[in-house]
Amino acid sequence: MNRITLSTLLIGVFLCCACAGNNNEQKKKLAEELRKFQETAITLPDNLLAKHCDEQVSPDKTLLNRKLKMVVYVNQAGCQDCKLHGLLPMTYMFMLENEHRNNFGVIIILNSSDIESTDDTLAELRFRRTVFYDLDGSFEFLNPHLPANELFHAFLLNEKNEVILVGNPVNNAKLNKLYLAEMDKIDNKS
Known about the structure:
- This protein has helices at 3-39, 80-97, 115-124, 138-142, 173-189; strands at 49-52, 68-74, 104-110, 130-133, 154-157, 163-166.
- The longest helix is centred in the first third of the chain and has 37 residues, at 3-39.
- It has a single domain (40-189), classed as Glutaredoxin, CATH 3.40.30.10.
- By secondary structure, the chain is of the alpha/beta class.
- Strand 3 (104-110), helix 3 and strand 4 form a beta-alpha-beta unit.
- It contains five helices and six strands.
């Protein structure tokens, strides 16, 4: 083996090891972040502005007190309009499929500084459900243990607001089954 090939091979092996180590560190950090997240109950701010996307319908504030609640939090980071277009259509379908469940609800918290623009996006998407505006960032302030990774900004809470499951069930069939199983447990107790 010539010297250049050996050097290239060694650099490649070194980079693979470095990347693998970095990936393991990231996995450990992520696991620790999720562990902390699930150890502390979520605090839902008292000052959330409940608004139904159809102004002729009263917002459903009972969602905040359901035995099981799926929280979908959309922060201001990045393109909020893009997030809503990517997230809400499938979430809306999930809500419709489970609206017969009296003990379950979906709480969509929007940390938006521009309600008018957000309302326009919701109207464009024909989203006809209650949303909760977090105008002053209270949700993140009261929940500093909320993971930074937006993939974990959807989660299932029990009646004590403890995190049961983390992740959005509309994007993952296995997670969807877990959500449905938790909903069925509550329905069977009623």
